[in-house]
Amino acid sequence: MPEPRLPKPKPTPETQAYWDGARAGELRLQRCRACKRAYFPPRPFCPHCASRDVEVFRASGRATLYSYVIHHRESPGFTPPYAIAVVALEEGPRMMTNLVGVAQTPEALVLDMALEVEFQALDAEISLPLFRPTKASS
Questions:
Q1: In this predicted structure, what is the pLDDT of residue 137?
Q2: pTM for the structure as a whole
Q3: Is 5 domain-assigned?
Q4: How is residue 105 annotated by DSSP?
Q5: What confidence tens digit (pLDDT) does each residue in 30-83 have?
């Protein structure tokens, strides 16, 4: 029996630039031109000052591990155990993601460890940003 596939995200007009970036191998965030703060997830206004003067930019793809939980139950597209992580992006925002290239154990998942983005293609349209330890920290 084939392994169940990951659920496929459905881009919206507000998130299309983010998903287009992921497909191109770029982590794209939004930044407010009024208060200069980056934010995630994508939306048409700044969550800090409510300005609608926002821009999309290419983020560095660097982050640190902020928090995680190790999930031990089966879920479509995932083989337990697997970490559900919150990473702090170098640009400031935090995002929920999964970790790859590292054992999914408390001993291996060290808070504040340096991470970098990697993209996993679900199909020709959607790629998911995942994070792995940087080469310097692995």
A1: 58
A2: 0.91
A3: no
A4: S
A5: 999 999 999 999 999 999 999 999 999 999 999 999 999 999 998 888 889 999
CB 20 within 8 A of CB 10: no
Task: Assign 17 to helix, strand or coil.
Answer: helix
Q: How many domains does the chain have?
A: 1
* Phi (first) and psi of residue 42, to 5 degrees: -60, 140
Structure tokens at 21: 């970036």
| Domain, as residue range, for 119 | 16-133
Q: Look-up: residue for tokens 């965030």?
A: 29
Alpha-helical runs (H) found in the chain: 16-23
- Residue 4 placed within a domain: no
Tokens of 1: 């029996």
DSSP state of 80: S
Angle value at C-alpha 63, between 61 and 100, nearest 5 degrees: 80
Rg, C-alpha atoms of the chain: 16
